[in-house]
Amino acid sequence: MSAILSPRPDSITAVPGGVPFVAPINSSDDAFNQARADSLISPKFYTTDFEAMDRIDVSSVQAEWDQLISEFRSDANKDHFERDDAFGAEVMALPEGLRDEFFDFLISSATSEYSGCVLYADIRAKVKNPEMRELMGYMARDESRHSGFINRALKDFNVGLDLPALRRTKAYTFFKPKFIFYATYLSEKIGYARYITIHRTLEQHPERRFHPIFRWFEQWCLDEFRHGEAFAVLMKADPKLQSGVNKLWIRFFLLAVFATMYVRDHTRPYMFGALGMKPDEFGFQVFRITTAISRQIFPISLDIEHPAFRAGLESMRTSFEGVQAAQARGGLLGKLQALGGNLKIAATFVRLFLRPVHRHALPDDVRVVPAW
To answer: Which of 49, 155, 163, 310 is the most buried (most CB within 10 A)?
Structure first.
């Protein structure tokens, strides 16, 4: 296992009032409580209208669908998620700040992957549509592997998650199928962009790879990419999902996913410092990749390079830090300050939502290849 780099001083910031970004994780109970918690930046569990999912017709995109399903059937990563001797080595004692943030990263990632597994498995179990059943079965298979692989890494530190209990006890959010498509497409594609960006960085600097799990990211992210392709094909099968008022929903989900990632990653300065990255630079590289990919199915994209976009994300980040500090302070004053901070976040989100966007024609062929 490679040595850990000390975080760069310019990558470390402090929450107002000295409040730590992430709570210490010292036991499986701590990890479980964090995974089950519901906050602005925590992964969600979803349910949907299963009858509407059952009515989906992919005949208008049959050629693309058949190619996609063939790729899922081939199961290119069926042997990928096997641990090697590096995982059997003595677990390195991570510095406190890095340890807590790395645990937070693993818990959030495992929860997000398991959320996909639960959603896809539920759809498969509750619809009769053979195309949906087959697709959702393959994607649930992949997400089960991903969440289990991460959870085994947590168990190495004795902070593993009880995933079946999480499924029973975590709150669920209901989304119509089209919202599932928008949100999950972006989640899968941004997951690809995140993993490949980390992989490319560590490819150049293997000494910064402080845990063996990072060596799995290159092949792993291809599963994420393929899952996104599935939702792109489903959206192409229903053209109204890219027109009319739905363009506003696309804009909303693009902004929500980008803002959530930006704020969440800034709660992990020690981890990004150890990887030799700055969260803002990492975030915008991920946004660029995700924006380039999403042109396959979205007729609009956010103007992420405009200074006002970066300034808005920074405003939401600092407001969120203020909310954390106010909540830790407690009392009536703390509650009022937290409310004010949340209102400021909402107002900033609205301003960014109303900014002009780029518009472009959709390609004839919805499929793209993972070329980043």
So the answer is: 163
